[in-house]
Structures are given as C-alpha cells and as structure tokens.
C-alpha cells in the first residue's frame, strides 16, 4: 500500500524531488540472470531528457543513471535494483513567487492543503522530473519482457490536431521533435508549437502506446485486470486526464456488431482476430493481439500568460509562471508512457506465470 | 496483491460466478461504530438490479443481500463485513454453444487460454453479476464517507448521442430507465434503444460520476493518486474501455490558458476555483472541488446478430448469442460507477487521515 | 494491507464471528486445474473440529464446509474460491457476565478500547472459531503444493512436559487425543489433563510443524523471508506467544561450530546437510532440508478459577469463565499450524516461480 | 508484495549489497511536518556501527547517512524519504574461497540455488550490513511515535548465560559493549567472549526489546496482529531463529491461573493490569501495557574453525571463514531490534488511526 510504489511482483518505488540532490528508484522482484548495466537504461533516459529540442523545457540535465545495487558482474541477482540520478541543474533562482502563490493547474494548493509543508522548488515531488525514474524502471522491465515484445509510443494528437493513421510510419517517430508517426502532422505541429511558444501559451496532446508480441493470459481479473493496471499506470503520469484502451471512448458510439472482434482459425492453428477494437484485452486479460492504449495530457500549466490565483496568505494574485517553458508536456510523456506500459506488462507476466506456469504463449488452442 | 480485491485500507474482496450458488464479498478495514444493516445496502442493489426495465437483461434476481459478519447490534465492529447474495435465476438451459465457442467481445477465449478451464455458464467469473457486490460494498463506503459527501452518476451519452448539459437535472435521473439527467435525451434514447433491441443489436454509452463535498487532500501521490485509483476502479468494471477526469480527453485540445482553473479568495476565507477543468483533482490530490469522472462502456457483446468466431476444437463457427439480451450494458453501469467512486473515496479518506490526521477539511488556508 | 487477509499470491481472507450466522473465507490466486471439492477439505476440518475428545471444547459443530465459487466440474478455475461454514451451535445462553466484564487473557478489553463496540458472544471475531477457515484454506494450499510435499504437526510439550524425541513416531499422532508423537508422553499428558480439567485449570503447549519435500529457493529476502512469513503466520494463531525455526531459542546457547549445518556432496550429485539446526531455512530461503518450526501456545484463558478483573462500567469484579471448557487450546492448534505452514509454503512457491521460473527443484548444483 | 519492503502505511524499502557502492532505503508514508535531519538518524546508526569494540566486526564504516528526499527546511513533507549510506570499507581482498564455496550457516547455497547468480562479496544482499538501513528507518519511526513512547533493547542472554532480572538497570546498557542491563552478567560475558574470540568460535544471544508508553488499540486482527507483525519483523533480522512475546515459550509451561494478567481499576479511572505475561498484547492488539518481545540470535556462522562444506563445482571442501570476525552477532542486533519495533509500532499507529481516528489513548474506559 505504498504511495510511491507501482506494480506488484515487478515493483517500482521512486523517491526524490525536482530540486533535491538526487532522484532515485528501487526495482524489486526483478528476475535474476538478466544482463543489465547502465548502458541498457541510459538510451531510454536520453530519449526523455529535457533540453533536447526547442519544444521542451530547457532544463539541462545529463540524467546519468547509476545502478547502485542488484547486479553483479553484469547480471541481475534477483535483489532490489537501486537506481539514482543526481540533479545537476538546480539553478539558483528566486522562488519567491512560486513559494508564495499557488500556480493554477499545478499541485501547489493541493499539496499545501494536504501536507501543510511543501517543497515548492520546481514543484518538488509533483514535478515531472520523477518520470525519469519511471523510464529507468521501464528499461529494466523491457529486459524482463525480452526481445520478443515490442513497446512503442507516439504522439497522435496535439491541440486537437490528430495524426492521419493512413500516414502512420513508426520510423517517422524518431525523425521529428514530437514522436509523431505522421510526417505531415509533424510539420503542422512544428508551426503550431512555435506560435504557441511565442505566445507563452501551451497545448495538450494524446499519446498512444502499442505493445506487440504480448502472449495471451496477462492480467488478473477482477481488480488486477490488465486494462485496469494500464489505466492506473497512465493516469499516474503527470498531467494525464484520460486513458483509453483499444477503441476507447469511441466504442461508446458503436453498435455491438461493429465493435465485435470476430475470429477465425489461421492455417497454423492459432486463433486470428479480424479486428482489434478491444485493444488486445478482453475480460481484463490479454488476447495475444497488440495491446493498444492512449492517454490524454493536458496543456502545460506553467504558461507566460497571467492567471488569477491566490497566495498562501489568502491574498488574490495574478501570476505568470516564469522560468523554463515547455509548450507541450505531452511530448516528453511518450517515453514515459512506454515505460509504464513495460512495467505493467512485466508485472503482469510475473503474476501470470506464478499462477499458471505452463500457460500457452500463443493463441494456439490447447487440446481438450 | 490480491487479484480479486480492491482498495487498500477500505478493502473489498469479491468472489462468485454468475451461475454458482452465490456471489459474495468481504469489506475489510471498515471503521467501527457505523450504523449498518441490510436496509442500508438493499436500495442500492435494487437500483442496479436486472429485470427492471425492458432495456436491461431480463434475468430475474431479487439480489437480496445478507450481512454475515462484521456488525453487532446494528453497528459495524471494525471486523470484516461478510456479504452474500444467493443466485436464484440460474435457469436451466443448454450451454452447448457458449461452452464450445468463444463469443466475440467476451472474456471466453482469454479465460480459456489463461486458465485452461472455464466456467462458461453465464460468463462465470467474468459476468457483470459480480458488480452487485461492488454496489453492496459501495453502500458501506457511503457510510464511511458520511452524509456530507454526495456521489451521483448519470448516463451522459448513448451510442454517440450526448446529453445537453444545459438540460442537466439530477432529478431526471430517477425518472427514466437510463439514469439520464436530460429529459430530452432520454426520450431520444428510448426510441433508439427500442429499435436496437428489435434489431438484436446493442450500443455503447458514457457514464459520468460526480462526487461533491469531498475534502481537499484525498489521494496519495505518486502512484496512489486519486485519479489513478479512480481510473483503475472504473476500468475494472465490465466492458469499460476508457476513463477520464474532469475535462478528460478534451483537455488535450485546449491551451494552457483555457484549461487553467483560476482561483480567488472567497469572503469566508476559502479558496474558490473559477472553473473545474481538473475535475477536482490536481497532482493526484483532491482540491475540495467536485470530483468529476467519466467512463466509456462498449456496446453489449452478446447480440442476436451472427458473428464469426471459433470453437474450442479449433473450428470456425458463426455465433448468435441467445438468451437474455441487454441492449446497453452501460445503463446498469451507472450504480456500479457510483459504488466504485464511493469505495475509492472511502479508501482515500482512511489513507489520508492515517498520514495527516489533522488535515484541513476545507480550502480555508492554514495560517503559516 | 488487508487486516484479515494472509499471504500474497496465495491469498486467504477470512470473515465471521464465533456466534454469527456463518464463518467464511476466500482463497484468491489459486492456480487453475487443480482437482478440488469439499471432500478434499472436510477431513482436515474434522481433525480440528471441537467436541471430539474430552480434552477440547464441547461445542458441537459439524463444521461442514461449502465451496461457493472458484471450481467448475471439480477443478479450480483460477478465480477466487469462496468457502463457508454455517455456525450451528450458537446455544442460547446468558452473555451477561462476558458482555459486561473483560476476561483476563482474552481480547475483550483490547477490542473494547480499540473499536468501542464488541461482539462479545463467544469472543466474536477473536474466537478460535476463525481457525476453521485457516484449516480449510490449508487444505487448498496442500493441493497447490502437490503430493510431493508433506506437512505434519505434533504437540511436543504440554505444561512443560516435553516429548522424548527418541520415542518420536508420526503414526502415534493419530492414536491419541493430543497429536502427540510420543506414546509415553501421551499417557502422562492424559493423566495430567484430566486433573487440570477437574480443577477447572488449563495449561500451555508447544506445537511443532515439519514440512518435508520442500524444494530449495522458497522465501524472498529481505522482508519476505520464509521464516519471517512462518513467524507471522504462527503468531497470528490465537493464544500463540512464541515462534521458532529449527534450533530456535536453543541456538542462542550454541557455539558457531555446534550450530553449523555442515555439507557434503552425495553420490547422486546433490548437496547433503549433515545436520539441520537451521530448520531448513538459511538467509530466509529454503535449502531443501525439512522445514521445522515450533510455536508456543499459552494456557487457555477461560478457566473455572476466579480471576480479578474489571467491567465496562469501571467496577472491579471477580470472574469465573463459565461455559465450555478447553483445558489445553494448544491441542487443536496442531491442525491450524499445519494449515498455516501449508499456506505459507504455497504462497512462497508461487512467488518463487514468478521470479525464477526455471529454478532447480533439488539441491543438485547447477553447472556453472 | 514487495520482497524488500516492510510495513504497510509506514513503509520501508531497502536496497544495497555489502560491498556495492552504497546501501539505501526509502521510507514512504511518513506523516508531514515532523522535524527530521541527518542528526536525528546518525546517533542510532552510530550505536549499531561496526568496529566500535573488540567484540564486533572490525569493518570500519563511518555509516554516514544522507537524506536525499522527503524533507524541506528541516521538516518531513509527506513524500518518500530517500536515505543512503556509502560503503567505504570495501577492502580489496581475495574472494576466491567464499566465491567458490558455500559457507555453512550462511545464505550462500540458498542464494546460489534460488537465483543462480550470487554477489558473494561479504555476503552481498544477505549481509547484516542491510540492517543499517533498518536502524535509519527506525530513527524516522521514532519521530512518528513521538517522545511519549520509549523503545529500548538489551541483550538478556549470551551463550545460555542469562541476565539476572533483579539486577536490571537500563543505565547499564550504555556502559558495556554488550547492551547488557546486568553489570554482573556483562562482566562474565566479557570474559567469555574474549575466550571465544581467541578460539575463533562464536556464540548466540537473546535480545529483549521493551516499548513503553504504547496506547491501547495498536494492531489489527486477524492477520495484522501486532504480535504477528513483531514476529515477522524480528524474524527478518539476520541470524534470528526465534521470537517471543511477553512470557513467550515459558507460557507453554504455565497454568491458566498463573498466566492470567488480572485487572483492577486504578483511582484515576484507568484499567491497571496486575501482571504482564501477555507482553502488552491481547488478541493481537496492544493493551496499553509495555510491549515486551524477545528474539534469539544464532551464533555467528563465520568462524575460524574449519567446517565441512562443498563448492559450486560439487567438490567437498573444508572451510575456514577468514576475515573480520564477529564473535557474537547478537550484540549488534540490539539496535536493529529496537528499530524494527519502532517501525512496527509506527505502522500500527497509522493503521489504527486510519480506522479508528478517535480511539482512546489510555486504558481509561469509554463511557457507554
């Protein structure tokens, strides 16, 4: 029942504040014998790292991760993996305004009312900086899942402008600053974001994460359903306000006939689905189809446009959030969403094999 | 890490299959000294009960709940509350087809592949019958929350036809068969559902749940965020494919200025929000505003229109799901959504007061 | 974090009071495909059942267990197993004294101070009646463990009179009323208990549980150590005041040389221990040797000798606990201890195979 | 279900190996607003620190703890408290023998069989070095408990030589190298240990921990009983083989009359117990009396006397464990036991106030 832990058998605990000396995490329950070093984690962190394009916060953090425990001679040992990243860019600045006032859309007031004390520097614990540890844990989770499972994320909408799925190209994701799989959309977004940035404004986005190669059977009904775990994982990411699986909210507008994922036997004896409205999950259990999930990220709350608020002394204030500006936090949420998906799946895999060690790994029907 | 338990300090465990002798649940962690009898639970079950209108399944279940433990002389004792409902309407029928084939959109294949054995009668454990226990637990949760907190649900869209919020009247919810707060929409839906029912089809829906009177401070970042708990709770409900908080997916299309919930001091010394895009939750913590959440329910998978599928012997089949037909399972999900919200909030309340026993119960700012 | 649940992956939740309508339990996480019916559970309950000899409480309970969910056509389905036993012998009696006064050695005062309300009938939730559900769950756990693992308990001391290990014969356990493996001791105990019973007194006992056929690797350091789980399991049994593993407290008086379990290779390539001071557990992990654990049960607190106490109105009282008298509750704790050991081991087995699915099942050394 | 976490609401997770770069821990769920700095933790670590007398390991570790998160301006913020101690004395040495052979009494073989890989340097994760983090967490737990609660430990037996309780003086504990409350016993032990050390042998010990000022009501039956939590906590400490509460194993030899803790009303309206055989816990719930618990520590397994064992290649070996020698690991277990007691009580306190926020804090009877 740990507030700062996620997962059950593949269990991630994080600690650290935006402007403290370091952030860190512990991955407990990782199977032994997996090859793991910092080099396996760093590339994923680099993808999430701020300061890499003009569209994300300019905080300069090398985000160099250290593995402090849990490996020996390059292999995981089954003991907890301690991870740490030192905070470098704690630039000396005046926190007066943020210390005194509650930024609209931020956790400031909520933390103040709940805890009474609040580390206001850069948002403290509520900062998206915490997500670096999720990405690090996700890299470990990928090791658990093995190379047969692919988890990829993309930004599929920005400020209401959606990608055209006909243009979808996973290769495009690495080519632009938005993790956008549609080159045409990426071009539009670039223009749009430049304008928003100039205006000191911000915009929301939708992230899609697709996991392929997933065996059937992951997920544990009723309350450990795979989709429920994904929903919790995604909703725990900063600024996320919605989560959907497969057809998602659009399913609410469909008829039963249209939403059915019909099935046929394939020549190789496996069950083939003729559609994937379900997003790879039925009854809370993976079906062997790709797991498809999306989450909505609200627009960055820190903007250069003055907003009405109050301060801790109960005075009305008009507040402009100065400092590094990130016009679309949804962009950096892509690697975070991938990481959370990896963690959820690794956890579900361990749970599944605990209960059903000899379960089938494909949709080939067991004889009976 | 129980698969069939929900919550942490207010902890609900359910058991039972659709056509077994009974379904039941255990509510653990309930505070002592609360007045509780079957009469406190039965009305909520009656609201969810099947067979009450022509738009829901015609299964006839009195759904009479018995409290088997945890109360003494009308008061909760702090020990686990055992609840049970006997299954009455296990009508004798031929399960041949459903036993042999995997119904598209149902958990059949997933359970078959995961577990190898499957109680196919009425969907077994994956049946929505399990939600009766959620409603019973929700009734207990309401006792924990007390009378100052109101939790109400409504159907806000059916088959893509949304309510007009200008017409919203909570009183209307009890007047129609849809829990619809917009009388005009209810009239349209009635017509629409009759046609769908006649056609043997079905349709999806969106449910909104609003909790008012919530104190600030509920929710425990990072991974016990109130919205993450709600997301998990709602996504665990049968047929749910999406969850959103406050503005939800629409937030992804807004700018930071438009999405900001600005604040001003009220004359009584409390902080007042000028909008509620956040749905009452910031940084995973309740702000004192109404908590607003929605979930999307897919169309009923059991339809009278033939769909392509396979059987357990690996043969292609075309399947019509006979039996009781429920053209919009989203309707009965309304009381379930309310119950899950109640359970999440009761749990969050206990967690909050464990860590911060003297936290403020309003947005009146603490002096400091 | 459920107060009334035990275990992690093989998870048992119990509910019910001594004199309520029923007691029950839920076993969650049980693997699918195991043959299970009431006939697998009932014999273990019969062993624990009261009223079977003159040395245990004369409450007459058939203790007929019903499986209400989680099996289908004689096999476990992987869904929660709901278990229930109706309470039959809730004899009409005057609870005046026990309702008003706090029995020394019982939970009465503690429950009263903690919860404010208290089901005083027969001790309510604190009654040893709850242990029937542990025994039922233990029967399921034995199914999970399979026939290669044997778990047996025995009473090894009563009132300070210990068995002579030279006389140990497991066959003797079923021959006397004490689960005593030493026929000579059993004869002495019979005489002793008859005298104590006549005097309205009671006496404590020590129970030993031995599990054989345990694979190495069970237990998860640091805080999920197998011995820590056993300690928690045993200490949660009513009236238990001490737990020890292997040499236990006697190890505190040994030297390192004497306490070392030396090793040699056996001709079959397995590691053989030359002693078992460790009780089959090193570093919290099973070694493949028999797991040996003991627990101390205090004398029955309900005695016919007057003791000084107070009542709920703050008046001094002298109290004789009338009613059914059980001169040595330690006797009936033997099947309960076995059951808890079975539950702990089943849970550890599932945890172990989640993390290390291909771990060796004997002490044959892996090549490396 | 984290293997390396302890507690529920006051939750401690540790990581790190004996000879890795650092060891660390995370304390989650700590209430906000408590004054906390390194200076609050360091003295407790200093008490546990090796190399302080000739009777404990000569490893030289300053054990300087750093708080990396969870505090702001000297106060806890309610967010996870990250703690770290760098390992300094990882002396360069030849691990050949310990890398190849399995030391009797150590976790070597068990880890090898379970995990396949093993960090053999100094015992890796199974090293008692991990207990430094327990002591650090215990210091935080003491803050949660407040100054009204006193937790003190003492060594009450060494190698079978027990203290005389008539000589008990808490002040003596700080005066000798053994945390011994009996000056006469301390003198005898000094002589004894010098001889054992010279002989390269070792000896076991018994530690007693007493917590005073405990309010009634802590502990949550049935499976979260306070004594079950203490049993698990103590048994998880390295080398512990037995745990007992109050009278403990001695209770098994008593009659019901002798074991009863009789009660009388005190003039101030509180219930007074006339004895404390129960060790302050009845029915798993604290009674307001001092909580008294003991644990048995086996003799140090690393001794300079050759023992028979095998190596990883399946060869018989005779092994002398060279290196720093600790003739009685029980000594350093005293501060660890205190810390575990503090953690258990802090956790129980949070759980109790979550469920029963207005429970009485003394044995003064509520009016009803």
TrEMBL record, chains A, B, C, D:
Pathway: Metabolic intermediate biosynthesis; chorismate biosynthesis; chorismate from D-erythrose 4-phosphate and phosphoenolpyruvate: step 7/7. PROSITE patterns: CHORISMATE_SYNTHASE_1, CHORISMATE_SYNTHASE_2, CHORISMATE_SYNTHASE_3. Reduced FMN (FMNH(2)). This reaction introduces a second double bond into the aromatic ring system. It comes from Pararoseomonas baculiformis. InterPro entries: Chorismate_synth, Chorismate_synth_AroC_sf, Chorismate_synthase_CS. It holds the Pfam family Chorismate_synt. NADP(+) binds at residues 48, 54. This is Chorismate synthase. Belongs to the chorismate synthase family. Keywords: Amino-acid biosynthesis, Aromatic amino acid biosynthesis, FAD, Flavoprotein, FMN, Lyase, NADP. It catalyses: 5-O-(1-carboxyvinyl)-3-phosphoshikimate = chorismate + phosphate.
